[in-house]
Amino acid sequence: MRPISRFTAWATTLATAVGATVVIAGSPAAAAGGGYWSISCDSPNACIRLSGGRQGPGGPYWNMIGCGVHGISDYYDRGYAHGWAFDVHYADRRWDRVEFGTNRPLDPNNRVTSVDVLC
């Protein structure tokens, strides 16, 4: 009976740790500069929109607050620079710049790994 209860406790601990890792790694909310999901790109933020019509917890737009590098790990199809210009960095080491006051398409098939808001 003891080996089964030890196994159950070990499996529960492992499942909890893996689940927490997936939540943290999959959400840009873990970014150092902060940000939030919204139904729109709010001024004066730099924003990126999830690709494929997908939605985050509060909408399809990730609004980044503050300057500097924001860690991201997902697929996005459009960038909006309402406040500052920013660079979008992809998993294959390519990048796109979204200039101040503009919006532009992003590569929806390439995973975004970070966004550098240029202040």
Write a compact overview of the structure shown.
The protein is of the alpha+beta class and 119 residues long. The protein has one helix at residues 2-26; strands at residues 35-38, 46-50, 61-64, 68-74, 76-81, 85-90, 95-98, 103-105, 112-118.
What is the overall silhouette? globular
The secondary structure category is alpha+beta
Give the helix tally.
Answer: 1
As a percent range, the share of helical residues equals: 10-25%
The count of strands amounts to 9
Strand arrangement in the largest pleated sheet: 1-3-2-5-8
Specify the biggest β-sheet: 5 strands, antiparallel
pLDDT below 50 for ≥5 consecutive residues: which ranges?
Answer: 14-26
Taking the alpha carbons of the first and last residues, their distance comes to 61 Å
Summed over residues and divided by their number, the pLDDT gives a mean of 83
